[in-house]
Structure formats: C-alpha cells, structure tokens
C-alpha cells in the first residue's frame, strides 16, 4: 500500500501551488512525521523545505507561528517563504515553504566531533531560545529531533508546531522533555519550560550509558529529576555543565537571558572550548604556513 504523498513527493516531481502558481521540483523526502511530510525542493537555483500536512488545525497553527516569527527582526526573519495548497489525488493538501536548513542531528554532530562541542551548541541553542522568548513565545516541543546543527556548531530550530504564546497551556510536547512528566512544574508556556527541555536535551546527548532508557520507563510515582543526576557524573563534559543543568531542571531562572548569561560565564570561567584537534583545517593551515616560511627562508638566504 502506498501512502498519500509517495507519488507527489517522488524525486523529480513538480509541486504546483494552486493559488500562487509557483512550481517546486522535489529533490528528496526529508522526513514524514505526525504532522506532515517535509521534502527538499528546488525553485530555480534556490532550495527550500516544503511541508505538506493533512492535519489542517496543527498545520495552520504551525503556519501562524512561522508567519508571526518571520515578521520579527530576528534570525527567524523570512523563515516562512510562502503558503499555498496543492492537489494530491483530487484533494487539496495545504503546504508551506520555508528556509532549508542543511545539517545533522545534534547527537550525530557530537558523536562525530566530540562532546566538547556541547559548550558551543548549548550556547547557540540558548541564544535561539532567548530570541524566541523576547518575541513573546515559548518553543514548547524542544527536543533532539527539532533542531539541526550545521558547521561550527551553528544551531537552527525546526518544527514550530509546538510554539505557544507565553502564559498559555503548552500545546505540543514530547513526554521525556516535559517538566510535567517529571513532576517538576506545570505545562504552561514559560521561559523556564523551554529551559527544562533544554537541560533534558543536553543530558540526552551526553547520556553515554543510556540511563534515560530505564529511568523514563520507571513508575510515574517514582519518577523525579534527581534520578537523572548520575548522567552528570558519567562524562567530563556533563560534569562541567552540571551546575547549569541542575538549575534549569529545578526552575531556577525566570528568563532565558539570565540562563544564557550564566552559561557564558560557566563556559568562560572553565575555558571550555572544543578541542583544536577537531579543527583539521587548522592543522593543515599551520603546516602550509610552516612550509611557506621554510621555502621563503631557503630562497632568500
Ligand atoms: N526547514 C527544514 N530544513 C531542513 N530539514 C527540515 C526542515 N523542516 C523539517 N525538516 C526535516 O523533516 C523532518 C520532519 O519535519 P517536522 O519535524 O517538521 O515534521 P513533523 O510532522 O512535525 O514531525 P514530528 O512528528 O516529529 O513532530 C525533520 O526531522 C527534519 O529532518
């Protein structure tokens, strides 16, 4: 049995917007989640991510969030490119086009480049959250799957279906990242809600012994964040940011700006930077300049 989108999203297929008439050529499918199908598409020489969804309410809510953010003077400006409908099997399917973000999951990035990159990635993710919070929103469903890491630890958020205006009830969540699941606070859109998920995300990435697996399946009445603390002792990187993570889990900060300042101080005080060994181009440049220096000395001596 084929799914509704298989034909429409086959590489090389054309997607034509019913109202705006723009045509996109599908390069490949990027993912199919509970709220829609996302494909990498091309129009002229530009590449975009196109998300189509049949769950109209959730889809519209994500469009509203992206539309609001795209109008702000932040790094989210112009993230949403256009909104239209397409016809698939004689039915109208709504879609929107957004900026395409090239990169990998944070866990894959850390696996490839080393745990020390968590200091840069954490800082960049906090910066993104502070931007979003300053605009009056909370991301809501912050998790590994909803962020993309590109070169030099640059971070982008994707999937804004859970974005909620401050003060409202959280509308989309993933249990293990939700402070309600850990009996650590209410499901209300506050900056501290995202900071809690941020701490869980960091711990999941640094969970070298896979402790999350067992703890998240423990009985709800026994579940509490203290059960996660052993993860903070399992690796050097986790131990170094432990003071931040414990505070975030305990709702210490009312604002992400305060949390971001604390993170920056913690990282600077301990001189936490990714190992230079992870910059192969640095070694190449150093060797090349040494060679050039020797050649110059030889020629002019
Ligand atoms: N702007 C983007 N740039 C690059 N890739 C993207 C972008 N948006 C989404 N993707 C890719 O498509 C996948 C599915 O997207 P998304 O998470 O928005 O769908 P979803 O239906 O809401 O999923 P979920 O069920 O996990 O909530 C993502 O995991 C990611 O790999």
Characterize the structure shown.
This protein has about 300 residues and is α+β, with helices and mostly antiparallel strands. It folds into two domains: about 15-100, Phosphorylase Kinase, domain 1 (2-Layer Sandwich); about 105-275, Transferase(Phosphotransferase) domain 1 (Transferase(Phosphotransferase), domain 1), CATH 1.10.510.10. The chain is built from nine helices and ten strands. The protein has helices at about 55-70, 105-115, 120-135, 190-205, 210-215, 230-235, 235-250, 255-270, 280-300, and strands at about 15, 25-30, 35-45, 45-50, 80-90, 90-100, 135-140, 145-150, 155, 165. The strands form three sheets. It has a six-stranded antiparallel beta sheet, with helices on one face. A two-stranded antiparallel sheet has the order 7-10. Strands 8-9 form a two-stranded antiparallel ribbon. The longest helix is centred in the C-terminal third of the chain and has 21 residues, at about 280-300. The protein is globular and about 70 Å long. The mean pLDDT is about 90. Bound molecules: adenosine-5'-triphosphate (ATP). Adenosine-5'-triphosphate (ATP) binds near residues 99, 101, 145, 159 and 161.
């Amino acid at each position: 049995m084929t799914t509704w989108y298989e034909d429409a999203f086959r590489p090389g297929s054309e997607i034509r917007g019913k109202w705006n008439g723009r045509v996109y050529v599908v390069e490949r499918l990027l993912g199919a989640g509970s709220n829609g199908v996302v494909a990498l598409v091309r129009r002229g020489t530009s590449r975009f991510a196109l998300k189509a969804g049949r769950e109209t309410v959730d889809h519209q809510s994500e469009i509203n969030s992206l539309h609001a953010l795209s109008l702000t003077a932040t790094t989210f400006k112009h993230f949403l490119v256009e909104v239209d409908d397409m016809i698939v099997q004689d039915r109208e399917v709504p879609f929107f086009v957004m900026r395409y973000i090239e990169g990998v999951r944070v866990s894959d990035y850390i696996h490839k480049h080393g745990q020390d990159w968590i200091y840069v990635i954490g800082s960049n993710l906090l910066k993104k959250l502070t931007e979003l919070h300053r605009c009056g929103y909370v991301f809501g469903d912050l998790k590994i799957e909803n962020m993309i890491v590109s070169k030099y630890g640059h971070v982008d958020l994707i999937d804004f279906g859970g974005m909620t205006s401050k003060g409202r009830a959280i509308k989309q969540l993933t249990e293990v990242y939700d402070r309600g699941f850990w009996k650590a606070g209410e499901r209300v859109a506050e900056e501290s809600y995202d900071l809690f998920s941020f701490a869980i995300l960091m711990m999941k990435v640094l969970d070298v012994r896979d402790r999350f697996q067992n703890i998240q399946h423990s009985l709800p009445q026994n579940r509490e964040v203290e059960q996660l603390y052993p993860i903070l002792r399992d690796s050097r990187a986790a131990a170094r940011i432990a003071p931040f993570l414990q505070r975030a889990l305990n709702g210490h900060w009312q604002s992400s700006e305060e949390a971001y300042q604390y993170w920056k101080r913690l990282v600077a005080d301990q001189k936490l930077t990714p190992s230079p060994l992870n910059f192969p181009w640095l070694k190449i440049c150093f060797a090349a300049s040494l060679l050039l220096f020797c050649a110059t000395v030889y020629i002019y001596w």
